[in-house]
Design a protein that fits this description.
Helices cover 24% and strands 33% of the residues. It has 2 domains: 191 residues, BirA Bifunctional Protein, domain 2 (2-Layer Sandwich), CATH 3.30.930.10; 41 residues, SH3 type barrels (Roll), CATH 2.30.30. With 247 residues, the chain is an alpha+beta fold. Bound molecules: biotin. Biotin binds next to helix 1, strand 3, strand 6 and strand 7. The site of biotin has 20 residues, from helix 1, strand 3, strand 6 and strand 7. Pfam families: BPL_LplA_LipB (PF03099).
């Protein structure tokens, strides 16, 4: 991952750019990375906009071909990517980096990064996947009207971090997890994912279809459902059904 690196100064979205490359007839090497200094239409999950100050942060997309991955187990790829990012960031920040389900990167109760995975299926196999990653690195000011609560590596470390060094670290850790996925190391991935999960096994409050519920996260399934144990009963929720409260 990252051997073939294309650096752009400005683009709408690195995910969009990669999508166009993938749909062109010329074959693209798996592991190709597109990074940009500035995105003018960066996209987040659930049709959100991804805001980031130009030149200060990491915004990049990785091209993968996980055709070995059975449909229904697609979330294992999200797990591999989030673990890879967390492991890479832990080289810079020892404690406190967590994965917030499904794949936000948190430090304490603040968001430091996000992942937008877009799959292109051919029948029932994953033909191509675009992994879009945004990490707040050297930005210190976040617009509180647009964002819930955000932080960056610089805010935590009180010093600048070299973007290319961090990119290389993230790529190599994602590659390691991706190879583990390819080799079928599912249970290890699931263990590592929950080990790094924000609010795992902690009593917490969530909003589910307008109702506030209290419970603990006890698992995340291979298809990406969040398992919450509530009054002795384990229920599973998808991304649209449940929202974290109190952060
Ligand atoms: C989220 O937390 O909602 C996901 C954010 C993903 C942002 C990255 S930045 C690089 C790539 N290109 C995009 O347009 N989005 C992703």
């Amino acid at each position: 991952v990252g051997q073939n690196l294309i650096k752009l100064s400005e683009v709408d979205s690195t995910n969009n750019f990669l999508k166009v490359l993938v749909s062109n007839s010329e074959p693209l090497t798996e592991g190709t990375v597109i990074m940009a200094d500035k995105q003018f239409a960066g996209r987040g999950q659930q049709d959100n906009i991804w805001h980031t100050e130009p030149g200060l942060n990491l915004t990049f997309s990785i091209y993968l071909k996980p055709s070995f991955l059975p449909v229904g187990k697609q979330f294992l790829l999200n797990m591999a990517v989030s673990i890879g990012i967390r492991n890479a960031l832990q080289r810079f920040v020892k404690d406190g980096i967590r994965i917030k389900w499904p794949n936000d990167i948190y430090f304490g109760h603040q968001k430091m990064g996000g992942v937008l995975i877009e799959n292109m299926l051919s029948g029932s196999t994953y033909k191509s996947t675009i992994i879009g990653i945004g990490i707040n690195v050297n930005q210190l000011h976040f617009d509180s009207r647009k964002l819930k609560s955000a932080t960056s590596l610089k805010e935590i470390l009180q010093q600048d971090v070299n973007l290319i060094e961090l990119l290389a670290e993230i790529c190599s850790h994602i590659e390691k997890q991706y190879l583990q996925l390819k080799a079928g190391g599912y249970s290890q991935l699931k263990d590592d994912y929950v080990r790094g999960l924000y609010k795992f096994n902690e009593p917490a409050v969530y909003r589910q279809n307008g109702e506030v519920i209290e419970g603990r996260i006890t698992e995340v399934t291979e298809s990406g459902l969040l398992g919450i144990l509530r009054a002795g009963e384990l229920r599973h929720y998808n991304f649209k059904e449940i929202e974290f409260l109190n952060n």
